[in-house]
Structures are given as structure tokens and as C-alpha cells.
Amino acid sequence: MNAANKLELLPAVDVRDGQAVRLVHGESGSETSYGDPLQAALAWQAAGAEWLHLVDLDAAFGTGDNRAQIAQVARSMDIKVELSGGIRDDDSLAAALATGCTRVNIGTAALEDPEWVAKIIAEHGDKIAVGLDVRGTTLRGRGWTRDGGDLYETLARLDSEGCARYVVTDINKDGTLQGPNLELLKNVCAATDRPVVASGGVSSLDDLRAIAALVPEGVEGSIVGKALYAKAFTLEEALAAVS
Ligand SMILES: O=C(O)c1ccccc1N[C@@H]1O[C@H](COP(=O)(O)O)[C@@H](O)[C@H]1O
Fold first, then answer.
1. Is there an atom of ligand 1 within 6 Å of 55 CB?
2. Pairing mode, if any, of strands 8-16 and 19-22?
3. Whole-structure pTM over 0.90, yes or no?
């Protein structure tokens, strides 16, 4: 549980082909564009965000990368940054950490290269989070296009290796504004004593309040994407709702 016993909010800036976008179910081609990523990030910071969840979607999909632009955004922030997408080897990890981000979020590599992930967890401690991106209880990697094993088996393995934190995304909910998968969050919290960051489906302030009610069970934060861009509520309202 975090010190303030308060749900942290992480507004998301996902970058594809140089633009801030939102996807539906993480499907390539489902993008809605929201303009310049730096302007989006600065807007969330100005609205009071303490965290930014910053994703290089091209790197996650294997369609190139936005590394220089992502680094510029991360370096321009005064707030904490969680950096994600395409961090799969020493080179991409070094580039990510060199941006000064607070932590990185590892997806595919945790499924395909467990030895490397165990090594970086041992080296970097809580600067490493693992993204558990699931359909049902099956993990998905490589831009969420490939199955990557069982959620709870992988969680047990990562726990034993000392993973500090998990970012749990329900792909079926992501970008849909259909509400978070509270059952999944409760089940993951029951399976691990590490903090969990929720991702996927937030549509309303009541959704955020429902996630905040899981803080005592181990939910530490929530990523908010589509709902903010679609103006379902403002970030100021969201922060007030969970304070
Ligand atoms: O955030 C998305 O919408 C998304 C969609 C499709 C693939 C990935 C997506 N997001 C982030 O990318 C990392 C995984 O990247 P990698 O597998 O390590 O290269 C995942 O944790 C999400 O944060």
C-alpha cells in the first residue's frame, strides 16, 4: 500500500507514428489520434498529474520506434514517468533508463526472455515493473498479438525473482470505456503481495472510485487513457475523486 493509502493516477500518452493515440483492445489500425504527445503530456502535468504512463506503441508492435520523441517527452516532465513499449534488451533498457524515467514497464520480454528479466530485476529493483497484459488469464506479448503463457504461473515466477510491481491490463477492456475488470484486479492482488497498477476500461469517476476501493487489497494505481481524451471527466476531477 502506498504511504498516502490513496490511488495513484497515471494518465497515458501512447505514441504511434509520432502522434498521441488511443487504441481499442490494443489493435493496430484502431487508432484515434490526439495530436502532439509532448503537448498531451504537458497538459496532464499541468492538470496535476503526479505520474505519466508513456508508451512507445511502434516499439511494442515492432513497427519501428519513437525513441527520440519519447525521450524528449520524458525529459520534459517534472513528474514521475513510467516508460513502456519495446524494452526487450540491454540497449532498449539503457535508452529507456537514460531518459531519467522513474521506472520502466516490461511486457514481451517477461514472457519470452525470463532470464534477462530476472537479471534486470536483480540489477534495477523497483525501477522495473512487469506489464501483465491478459485476455482472460492468458498473457499476450508482441503488441498483444501472441499468447505468452498463463498469468498466474508467470506471476509466481516473477514474484520469486523479486519483481517489485505489476501493471495489469485487461486487453478486452482496454480503450473500450466499458469499466475496469475488478475481478481480475482482485484475483491478481490475492495472488501476489506486490503492488498492482490497474489498466484498461476506466470510463467514469465511479470506475476510479471502485478501483480506489481495492487499494487495501494491493492496487496502487490506475492508468487512465481513453476516458481523459474523450473528456468523460477531467484529470482534476479524477484526482479529486480518489483523494
Ligand atoms: O497500451 C496499449 O494500448 C498497447 C497496445 C498494444 C501493445 C502494447 C500496448 N501497451 C504497452 O506496451 C507494453 C508492452 O511492450 P513490450 O511488449 O514490452 O514491447 C505493455 O506493457 C503496455 O504498457
1. yes
2. antiparallel
3. yes
Number of C-beta neighbours around residue 18 at 10 A: 12
CA distance 107 to 100: 20
Instruction: Tell me how far apart the alpha carbons of residues 25 and 169 are, in angstroms, rounded to a whole number.
Output: 10
Of 56, 65, 133, 207, the active-site residue reads 133
pLDDT tens per residue, range 8-42 = 999 999 999 999 999 999 999 999 999 999 999 99
Q: How far is the CA of 240 from the centre of ligand 1 (A)?
A: 28
Tell me, using a 6 A CB cutoff, whether residue 199 lines ligand 1: no
Active site residue 14: yes
Q: Exposure string (b/e) for 82-91, b if CB count within 10 Å is 16 or more?
A: bbbbbbbeee
Report which protein residue has its CA nearest ligand 1's atom 12: 85
The residue from 14, 56, 65, 207 that is catalytic is: 14
The structural domains of the chain, with segments of one domain joined by +, span: 8-241
Residue given cell 525470463 in the structure block:
114
CATH superfamily of 8-241: Aldolase class I (3.20.20.70)
Interface confidence (ipTM) of the complex: 0.95
82-101 residue pLDDT tens: 999 999 999 999 999 999 99
